[in-house]
(Mediterranean fruit fly) hypothetical protein (Ceratitis capitata), 845 residues
Amino acid sequence: MAEETTPLTAGMSPPIGPAYVFPGGVSPRSRRNRKMQQFQCCLGITVVLIIIAALLAAYVLVEETQEPSPPILLVAATINDTNPSKKNAEASAALEAATTPLSDEPTTEWALKQAHISHTQSEQAVNAGIKALGDREILEESQQLTPVHSAAFRHYRSLSTGPEARKLSRRGYVENQATKHIAEMLNYTKPSGRNNIGNGPTITLPDPTMNFTCDFNARYRTASGVCNNKAHPRLYGAAMIPYRRMVAPDYADGISLPRVSHAGNGTQLPPARKVSLDIHRASYNTDTNFTVMLAVFGQFLDHDITATSLSSLPEGESIDCCAVTSLTMHPECFPVPILPDDPYYQRYNVTCLNFVRSTPAPTGHFGPRQQLNQATAFIDASVVYGSSEQRQRHLRTMLNGTMRMYITDDGRELLPLSTNLEDGCNRGEMAREGKYCFESGDDRANENLLLTSMHLLWARHHNYLARGLQAVNPHWDDETIFQESRKILSAKIAHITYNEFLPILVGPKLAKRKGLLPSTDDLDAPDTYNKNVDPSIANCFAGAAFRFAHTLLPGVLNATNDRSVPESIELHTMLFNPFSLWSAHGIDRALTTASNTAVLRVNRFFSYEVTQKLFESNDGDGSIKPNCGLDLVSLNIQRGRDHGLPAYPVFRKHCKLPPTDTWEEMATAVDAKSLQSIRQIYSSPHDVDVYTGALSEPPLDGAIFGPLLTCLVSDQFMRLKRGDSHWYERKMGPQRFTKAQLEEIYKVTLSKIICLNSDGVQQVRTYVMEQRKGEGNGYVNCSEAERFNFSAWATSSRPVKLHSVAVSEAKSLIRIIHGKTTSATTATTTTTPRTEPSAQTGNNV
């Protein structure tokens, strides 16, 4: 084989020059020269042969560990030859064609040979599940707790799990273990490729009553989201139900073990931290069109519709997965391994990142593991009020419809105080000054300063609405004022979502095409409600797609123009640190910071503040040395595997986008440099995590992210609008607003909410999530901002049938969602079947 280093004279005869150069013979000197040249030639050939042999050996080794594929440079050339605008046009056409929600993948059939298991087999399996739970409870008695104020503990607090979810999760664990037992009993073997055991027979366990009373003519929502859909009152969009599966899960064992490589034989996927380091490395590409307020509102909205329940110890304590041996490790541990050459964590001798699996949700039947959503799916301001009647009542004053607030010495309203010094937020030295973290409708309110500010903004706005409604309706009682204020506030959040937030995400053109814009120009537009649409949150949306906003976060945020305070602040110093809100104009500075800082572009790159310093801190007293932070990207990837989210190509196919089943096909979907990084880590496109693949796609025209994220996000928000019987733009039913009231709601912007409820913000852009000038987005003076007109809500008498559910509904709902898990020595347990209860309705009109 000839290469660039092979001598051109090799193999020629005579080897050096023609014979006529030396007539009459060859001199001794010439002979010596010829021998020297021959020696050099042979030496050169030998070196070349050694190099070729080494290359062939390396090639064979690579072939043994990796499937054949074209060279990376060839793939890159293919991408460069592809017209990006053509790719975007094809993807946009596919997305625009879907003007209704996509049909979820059909439920997988029970894959066991015996489709109908006997009652005895079912009972044996359930008893095995109960025993497994008992063994787990015994193990939990000796579990080491995660240190308070550590990064791992604060991560746990950012995914807080309530007592109801803990009870449900234990029943889900029994179902999961029972499914494993029946699969072993019947010799179930997971087929190659994506698959799961499928939904099986009902688990016959003693159940609490499923009957509860719904009044479908009620003006207001229930706190828990039940009774929204007449045919599916308990399931569609309610709190404490499993996430909806857009596509069937992919587990290593077909039941519950996290996803593994497509190569089979139990081959593990590349460590999540390695994926983060090699693909999602730091790069600071600012998008000056948008502000951090986009990410802040997005997180606030995310917490309104998703709250994944995390596995914990019986009393809610966090599980430490990195301080134990494999023999004592909790069965719900799934830690992220750290390689010895990690450029950051090796300095701290860290070998793993703590990671606890999401709780298994009870489904009432044998089948694959599902995860629990503690929040209602609806945009109903549950992030402000809570997703249970008990939480709502705890946050209310029960006087004039107002919410509890803490009033400072200078008369400012702050959120109610949380005085637990071991909540991962409160600090000893701040508590000694009388300054604490806060309570809200969602336990994650203290996670970062900007999020806490958003919670405070909307809690204040509720009381603003309550006072305004009471002024025009002095005859209304506390319950009426509270519920009407809650109804208006949730409508405002929904309007801001669909009028300001979503057009940025998917682009105004596609948003209009998919019906994701408010009908501000046509108050007589048809009612969009469809009782057959399930608005429940998709697992892939909560576990991957809506986590896109983490890539928006810059490492440093611009603070204020006030020289008396720092001009910038590092992101990680704002986590679990809401104490600046105690200062005068503290909320103003936080909101101005979010409004004045540009976001990073949505792509595969993340700031080091996100990939190294997440929840990095000390306890504030100096008794604990500062510890290294976590890597949020690794945790996101690990969460997707924990949830059994299938690989990137599966979701592309479901969204009817061009396939990415081969590296050549994937070259038309992601950019060249991303593909090079992806191919160096993943052995097949069918191993690529959906989070990584989706973030590697170039953005569509007019949108901030690529086709797959556009599909997954737009589909979920179509469902939230069309599947909500209490949607604020409804034209029918007792839930609707009048035209005059709807006109007032249409006038709301996030900037007006800031002007009305901050301490003293003087000036703000019309659309605070955007930074670009023009297009009606200039600065406005808050003193000139139009006030909310309460006269549209004035009534001459107290409205009839205002209250959504009788008191008995709350009690019976508690019986529905609160199961009782017995101890290890008890022979029975309870569960909630996934099947719908028979709802007793009130007067139907």
